[in-house]
Amino acid sequence: MDLIGKVLRNYIAGEWRPSAATHSLPVPNPATEELLARVPLSPAEEVDAAVVAAARAFQAWRETPVVERGRKLMRYKRVLEDHLEELARLTVHEAGKALEEARGDIRRGIEAVEFAAGMPTLMMGRVVEDAARGVDQELFRAPLGVVAGICPFNFPAMFPLWLMSIAVACGNTFVLKPSERCPLSAVRLVELLSEVDLPAGVVNLVHGEKEAVDAILAHPAVRAVSFVGTERVGRYVYSQAAANGKRVQCLVGAKNHLIVMPDAVPKQTVGAILSSAFGNAGQRCLAGSVLVAVGEAGEVILPLLVGEAGCLRVGNGIEPDVRVGALIRREHKERVEAWIEQAVAEGAKLLLDGRRADVPPHGYFVGPTILDGVNPDMAIAQEEIFGPVLVVMRAETLEEAIDLANRSRYGNAAVIFTQSGAAARTFRYRIQAGMLGVNVGVPAPMAFFPFTGWKASFFGDLHATGMDAVEFYTEKKVVTTRWW
Ligand code: NAD
Question: Which residues are catalytic?
Answer without folding.
Answer: 285
